[in-house]
Structure to design on (580 residues):
């Protein structure tokens, strides 16, 4: 999808990056090897950044604008999904940390696998909803000046 | 950083309809789907008779249970929810969106009862109710498209579908008046034009348009280019206009040209969609896409066969085969594929709207039930194609039995999703 607003383009690019990494996790998580361990470490780091920066920005700057434009229940649904993803991400991050430290047993590995698959599905569904509802709405809601200001805030 | 539940919703006028609005349409479609196959199971010989001679009877009833009861019913329910997302405009009136169902569902039931029992007055009353429902829907669609922003290609397909809806309703009323009041018209030509407007026009253009954003969403891929979407739409619209003119003229050569132009449009659409799907970010497409591809194959085959029929190169009895490729092959298969992704997705959105976060879509997708449906539906389609091609009654009956099984499996899927939504 082509977006005119800088902030929509930026979020879209991050969505694509998220989908790429989590699709790979989803495809490979069944077979444990060194490459998978590295991928899990990358996914955990990317997710921590996504949750801290991308989610916070949307909740602080974008969802209130969505609500003001009469899309409150969509904003609320997306915010709720952020909450659920944050919970799942915290669990995944803890298990990934144990994996890096070499202290993850077989039961822990199984929990990590389940957490990874759940996160992959949740992230894909969440991105689909944002691509369908949030980003197109931003094209209408933001004028050029506000868009530039938000892009600057997000970069900073 | 998470806002409190309800913090955003005060005074919101949302594009998300109450779950009961789209789901009532999907529920009615599930019921009419089973009734259509049941009717064919009881009267298998009617398929060949209807394809050859037309007229009232169980085959006309079964056809309209599928076209009006399943295809139009689902299209109305799905587009009432999906067009507001695509066009960034809320539905003009939720009450009107509910009213359409109260007109359309009894209208389909009366129409089918009247057709099956050879009672034109009952059929006429059903047609009037169904057309009244479609008129209200047409107004809702018009209001949505008029104020639409974004997704220009989807909106353009919506306008094409709306124009076809107006013409198919007019031709449908004329046919009902022919049966009920003896209105003089060329029934064969009007019925064929009505079929073209309904199947390739209203339903076909809606399917092409909504595919532009639904299939990429399911596959997590980019959408096809707007240019390719407009090119396919222009060719499809020209083919439909040409076909209707050729049927009313009548001109077999013009009809053949229309079919070939339609085939070009369909091929362009399928190639553009496949091109977009190739760029998907998730390797697995999911089993629903098997049905999507079978549906696309049937669409292309229906248009190739239409050209052969128009040019006089098709064997006798090809009309029944054409009808099977077009209605259960292309439209019904495509719709069931898309609906099996939309219903769980929509259910999780509504389950998540209560301050607890959306549940996983996979937890709302009964995979084994859908697998059973897939096998039964494809078996039914293959048997029906063979039965129509060979004119063999027992093959049609076996197809209807498998189709009824498929419809019941689909009903079980729908009930399971509803039960899961209620639990949540």
């Amino acid at each position: 999808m082509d977006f005119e607003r800088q902030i929509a383009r930026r979020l879209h690019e991050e969505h694509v990056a998220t989908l790429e990494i989590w699709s790979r996790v989803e495809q490979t998580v069944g077979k444990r090897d060194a490459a998978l361990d590295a991928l899990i470490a990358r996914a955990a780091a990317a997710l921590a950044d996504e949750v801290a920066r991308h989610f916070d920005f949307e909740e602080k700057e974008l969802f209130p604008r969505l609500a003001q434009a009469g899309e409150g229940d969509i904003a609320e649904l997306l915010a709720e999904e952020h909450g659920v993803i944050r919970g799942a991400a915290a669990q995944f991050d803890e298990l990934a940390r144990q994996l890096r430290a070499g202290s993850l047993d077989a039961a822990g590995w199984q929990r990590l696998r389940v957490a990874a698959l759940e996160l992959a599905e949740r992230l894909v569904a969440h991105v689909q909803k944002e691509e369908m509802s949030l980003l197109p709405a931003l094209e209408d809601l933001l004028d050029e000046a506000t868009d530039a200001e938000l892009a600057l805030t997000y970069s900073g | 950083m998470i806002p409190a539940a309800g913090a955003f919703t005060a005074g919101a006028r949302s594009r998300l309809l109450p779950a009961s609005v789209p789901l009532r349409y999907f529920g009615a479609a599930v019921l009419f789907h089973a009734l259509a196959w049941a009717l064919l199971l009881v009267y298998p010989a009617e398929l060949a008779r209807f394809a050859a001679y037309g007229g009232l009877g169980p085959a006309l009833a079964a056809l309209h249970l599928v076209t009006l009861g399943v295809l139009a019913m689902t299209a109305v329910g799905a587009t009432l929810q999906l067009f507001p997302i695509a066009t960034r405009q809320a539905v003009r009136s939720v009450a009107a969106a509910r009213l359409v169902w109260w007109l359309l569902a009894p209208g389909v039931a009366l129409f089918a009862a009247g057709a099956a029992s050879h009672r034109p007055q009952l059929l006429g009353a059903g047609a009037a109710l169904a057309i009244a429902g479609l008129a209200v829907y047409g107004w809702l669609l018009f209001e949505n498209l008029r104020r639409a922003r974004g997704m220009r290609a989807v909106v353009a397909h919506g306008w094409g579908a709306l124009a076809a809806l107006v013409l198919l309703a007019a031709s449908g009323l004329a046919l009902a008046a022919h049966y009920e009041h003896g209105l003089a018209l060329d029934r064969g030509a009007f019925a064929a034009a009505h079929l073209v407007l309904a199947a390739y026009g209203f339903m076909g253009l809606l399917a092409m348009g909504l595919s532009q954003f639904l299939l990429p969403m399911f596959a997590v891929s980019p959408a096809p280019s707007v240019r390719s979407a407009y090119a396919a739409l222009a060719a499809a619209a020209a083919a439909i206009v040409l076909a209707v003119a050729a049927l009313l003229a009548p001109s077999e050569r013009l009809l053949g040209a229309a079919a070939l132009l339609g085939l070009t449009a369909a091929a362009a659409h399928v190639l553009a969609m496949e091109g977009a799907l190739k760029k998907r970010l998730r390797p697995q497409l999911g089993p629903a896409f098997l049905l999507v591809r079978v549906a696309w194959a049937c669409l292309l085959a229906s248009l190739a066969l239409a050209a052969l029929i128009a040019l006089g190169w098709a064997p006798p009895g090809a009309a029944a085969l054409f009808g099977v490729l077009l209605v259960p092959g292309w439209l019904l298969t495509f719709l069931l594929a898309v609906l099996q992704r939309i219903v769980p997705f929509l259910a999780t959105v509504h389950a998540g709207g209560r301050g607890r976060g959306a549940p996983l879509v996979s937890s709302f997708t009964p995979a084994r039930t859908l697998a059973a449906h897939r096998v039964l539906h494809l078996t039914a389609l293959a048997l029906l194609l063979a039965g129509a091609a060979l004119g063999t009654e027992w093959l049609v009956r076996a197809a209807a039995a498998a189709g009824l099984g498929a419809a019941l499996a689909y009903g079980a899927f729908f009930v399971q999703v509803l039960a899961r939504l209620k639990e949540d």
In short: The radius of gyration of chain A is 17 Å. Chain A has a mean pLDDT of 88. The interface with chain B takes residues 1, 16, 19-20, 23, 26-27, 55-56, 59-60, 63-64, 66-67, 70-77, 79-84, 86, 118, 121-122, 124-125, 127-129, 131-133, 136-137, 139-140 of chain A (CB under 8 Å).
